[in-house]
Write a structure and sequence with these properties.
The complex is a heterodimer of chains A (307) and B (537). By secondary structure, chain A is mostly helical. Chain A has helices at 2-5, 13-17, 19-26, 28-56, 87-122, 125-140, 143-154, 158-184, 188-196, 200-236, 248-255, 264-290, 297-300. Chain A has one domain: Orthogonal Bundle (MetI-like fold). Chain A is flat. Chain B has 537 residues and is of the alpha/beta class. Chain B has two domains: 34-57 and 82-257, Rossmann fold (3-Layer(aba) Sandwich), CATH 3.40.50; 274-506, Rossmann fold (3-Layer(aba) Sandwich). In chain B, strands 6-7-8-3-9-10 form a six-stranded mixed sheet. A six-stranded mixed sheet of chain B has the order 16-17-18-13-19-20, sandwiched between helices. Chain B has a four-stranded antiparallel sheet with strand order 2-1-4-5. The two termini of chain B are 39 Å apart. The chains are: A mainly alpha (307), B alpha/beta (537). Chains A and B meet through helix 1, helix 9 and helix 10 of A and strand 2, helix 13, strand 16, helix 15 and helix 17 of B.
Chain lengths: 307, 537
């Protein structure tokens, strides 16, 4: 078997020029996910500019109008909300704040958490103790309570939301990273790097981080959905995003009272949250394989065996 | 053949993987009777364990698939039986022990309970099982059986754990015991004890013993017949003596020729300048003394072997010199400068001159870096060879120097075999043009034939480039071919040192003598003579 593993098909010319795209194409689910995410990002960038007015214009005759009815024009294909605004336009416009808060929170939490986790895992006992106790403090403090206090004092705005939500999510990344670093630093290739004279920074960035990264990315994609919903509960309490700004999470919570009479108010934004999270998750799965040299062949193989 | 107690006939097993079907074993046949010892000899990947796994019904199906053949036990085909019927045979009539007893003993139960469970699971009453457990523990040489039954697996040493596994396997007096590399993870002296125990038990109970191993010495010591496997096929079988003295198949001939410890012993060249001198190194972990007053001297171009069993402090010695651990006291002079007192800046310069090759290349090479990145990393760290074209040229040269080819540079470690990976690790060490390479069990994890190649490579590098070696090993045979001077360590102390010739021909310390006596010779006749001598003594 060891002999077989040395025989890897030479990548073709096309694969060499677009290695990632061709690997993405091999995994059809990941490819679709990537397309979905690109569309959502385009919504977030251009949505408010193109549809901003439409999304806020009220049409009281279209209050809670049912979906799949073209009588009021294409904007109402997904129905209208409780003030008669077209759902489709609102969903597209809401993509921006939703993505800003969710991506911002996850990015900040991941970067800060992973950095602290790497330091806590690699540096000495005292640094580690200090960082870990800090994480314990954050974890033992009810996250909603921190959010209420901080947002009440600082006032609700997107940067403040990101700050608050990120702080509550940091310990998850921190603890996971530290646990993995403690294991990885014992591995022989780290020792080999020490023998070669590599500095701490080099060992952490070149040898430990790449091994830990896939786990972090997976957690981050799962966290995405959590953050979207946490943001909606803050908005519900009146300290998050405030109308006329909209996010999917806010739309879900605004639609909740009408669940029995107008299910589409909560359903469409909920569906978008699910689709976004699912796409991210599938894409992160693909990324884990594509970035691991020992697994990459699954995406490079000529045959489309179900790998 | 047909009336053998257990016979495997024309067994073929395929493994279905994403990359296609691998024929793990093809048309394998062997048989064993009571009182007999059959060795299945092969290197890693030869499929030597697959047929035994099929007998024990522990193949993972799928990905494995038995495509042909039958396994007859007392004339009945095991492969045609239901799982319940096979469970009644497994453990009771045919038992198995494994290479790594720690992973096959459950860490959360006391060992006495685990051995009794073996019997109660097959319907024996609990009190009878308890009594038999005590008897068994005494029989396999575990001290104080009454206390031992209440202990947990981690409280035993590796050799004792293997004894526990043997006790468990023998609980129901099986007719056949399958031992899969039973002594590979053990030190030589303990290996000798465990093999002796297996032999005694076999004589007492009359069971058949199937021994799966890669070690010619083990075969010579214990087996009556041997089956040699290569690439999933039996290439040769016969009595151990016939196969050793008159191997027919080229693979067997190669395997026997590769056994270490047969080359010329090197004579130490006198008056070489001293490169490394360690004086009175001490290191204590809690109450465990890892190093006590260890002093070594290594001259330029010389190779010094440090031999000892696990826990003897030989790795700690290397790690202390490299400052991977801080020694408690002592000095280590590298060209006259004390390594142990150097600042980090000074140490960086020395790190270039001393390189290390680790035991397991699978772990010592970062799996996410290509061979090119692995080899050139040292240049990044020390700001050497800045020119890209020149780098590529050097990587090519280094790969060729260690017997790989230039196109390997873009590949990743998992695409290579174990021996090739160790070559990459050696190329990486050579990239910084070191004056000393410390090999920590650098060939222990490799198959015999590959071991021989790697040692030949190291020896060649020593002669061509004048690199010194500090060679740490537990295997005396390997050291004999390679070292100028040998140091024998035990419990953190050096018990004997001297030129290789002297250590092998006239060992003075009793421990060295025991080590030498316990090392198994691949020649069955030599082993037989040693056994007789040992019995008389």
């Amino acid at each position: 078997m060891s002999d077989l593993s040395t025989v890897t098909p030479a990548p073709s010319e096309k694969q060499r020029t677009w290695p990632l795209v061709s690997m993405l194409w091999r995994d059809k689910l990941a490819f679709v996910s990537a397309l979905v995410l690109v569309v959502i990002v385009l919504f977030a960038i251009f949505g408010p500019m193109l549809l901003g007015d439409l999304a806020t214009s009220q049409n009281l005759r279209g209050r809670n109008s049912p979906p799949f009815d073209l009588a009021r024009g294409w904007a109402f294909i997904l129905g209208g909300d409780s003030l008669g605004r077209p759902m489709l336009a609102r969903l597209i416009v809401a993509a921006r704040s939703t993505m800003l808060v969710a991506a911002g929170t996850v990015a900040v939490a991941m970067i800060v958490g992973a950095t602290l986790g790497l330091l806590a895992g690699y540096l000495g006992k005292h640094v580690s103790q200090a960082i870990m106790r800090l994480a314990d403090v954050i974890m033992s403090f009810p996250s909603l309570l921190i959010a209420v206090i901080v947002l009440y004092v600082l006032g609700p705005s997107i940067p403040n939301m990101i700050l608050v939500l990120a702080i509550t999510r940091i310990p998850i990344y921190l603890r996971t990273t530290r646990a993995e670093v403690l294991e990885v630093r014992q591995r022989m290739f780290v020792q080999a790097a020490v023998v070669m004279g590599a500095s701490n920074g080099r060992i952490i960035l070149r040898h430990i981080l790449p091994v830990v990264a896939p786990t972090l990315v997976t957690i981050a994609t799962l966290d995405f959905a959590f953050v979207m919903l946490a943001e909606s509960s803050l908005s519900f309490l009146g300290i998050g995003i405030q109308p006329p700004d909209i996010t999917w999470g806010l739309m879900v919570s605004q639609g909740r009272p009408y669940l029995t009479t107008a299910w589409w108010l909560a359903f469409w934004p909920g569906l978008l949250i699910v689709i976004t999270t699912l796409s991210l998750n599938l894409l992160s799965n693909w990324m884990r394989v594509a970035l691991d040299p020992a697994q990459r062949w699954r995406l490079e193989a000529r045959s489309t065996a179900n790998g | 053949m047909a009336d053998a107690l257990l016979s495997v006939q024309n067994l073929s097993v395929d493994f279905h993987t994403v990359r296609g079907t691998v024929h793990a074993v093809r048309n394998v046949s062997w048989s064993i009777n009571r009182g007999e010892t059959l060795a299945v000899l092969g290197e890693s990947g030869s499929g030597k364990s697959v047929s035994a796994s099929a007998v024990m019904n522990i193949l993972d199906i799928p990905p494995a698939q038995i495509v042909g053949g039958e396994i007859l036990f007392e004339g009945k085909n095991l492969l045609a039986m239901s799982n319940e019927q096979r469970r009644a045979i497994n453990g009771k009539r045919i038992a198995m022990i494994f290479q790594d007893p720690l992973s096959h003993l459950n860490p959360v139960y006391p060992v006495g309970w685990q051995i009794s469970e073996m019997m109660t699971a097959h319907g024996r009453p609990a009190d009878e099982a308890r009594a038999r457990t005590l008897e068994l523990l005494g029989r396999v040489g575990i001290p104080e059986p009454e206390n031992a039954v209440r202990k947990y697996p981690h409280q035993f040493s590796g050799g004792q754990r293997q004894r526990l596994m043997i006790a468990m396997a023998l609980a129901l007096k099986p007719d056949i015991l399958i031992a899969d590399e039973p002594t590979t993870a053990l030190d030589v002296t303990i290996q000798a004890d465990v093999l002796a125990l297996l032999k005694e038990l076999q004589a007492e109970t009359g069971m058949g013993l199937v021994l799966i191993t890669h070690d010619l010495g083990v075969v010579a010591e214990i087996a009556d017949r041997v089956v040699v496997m290569s690439n999933g096929e039996i290439v040769e079988q016969g009595s151990v003596r016939d196969v050793y003295h008159a191997p027919q198949h080229p693979y067997t001939q190669k395997l026997i020729a590769a056994a270490p410890g047969k080359g010329d012993i090197r004579i130490l060249a006198p008056d070489l300048p001293v490169l490394l001198e360690a004086r009175k190194l001490c290191k204590v972990y809690g109450r465990f003394t890892a190093l006590q007053d260890v002093s070594i001297t290594l001259a330029r171009g010389q190779s010094l072997a440090v031999v000892g069993e696990s826990g003897s402090g030989k790795s700690t010695l290397a790690r202390s010199i490299l400052r991977l651990e801080e020694a408690d006291s002592g000095e280590a002079f590298w060209k006259g400068q004390d390594l142990l007192k150097m600042s980090h800046r000074e140490l960086l310069g020395v790190r270039r001159q001393i390189q290390m090759v680790f035991q397991d290349p699978t772990q010592s090479l970062n799996p996410r870096m290509s061979v090119y990145q692995l080899i050139s990393e040292g240049w990044d760290i020390h700001n050497l060879v800045p020119d890209r074209a020149q780098r590529q040229q050097r990587v090519r040269e280094l790969l060729e120097q260690v017997g790989l080819s230039a196109e390997h540079a873009t590949r990743y470690p998992h695409q290579f075999s174990g021996g090739q990976r160790q070559r990459i690790a050696i190329a990486r060490a050579l990239a910084l043009e070191p004056e000393l390479i410390i090999c920590d069990e650098a060939v222990s994890a490799l198959d015999v034939s590959i071991q021989a190649q790697v040692i030949a490579l190291l020896d060649d590098l020593r002669q061509r480039l004048g690199i010194s070696f500090l060679f740490i090993a537990h295997d005396l045979g390997v050291v004999r071919d390679f070292a100028d001077t040998v140091i024998v360590m035990k419990s953190g102390e050096i018990v004997e040192r001297g030129p290789t010739e002297q250590i092998f021909s006239a060992p003075s310390h009793p421990y060295t003598q025991r080590l030498l006596a316990a090392a198994l010779d691949p020649d069955p006749d030599v082993q037989a003579k040693r056994r007789i001598a040992l019995a008389q003594a």
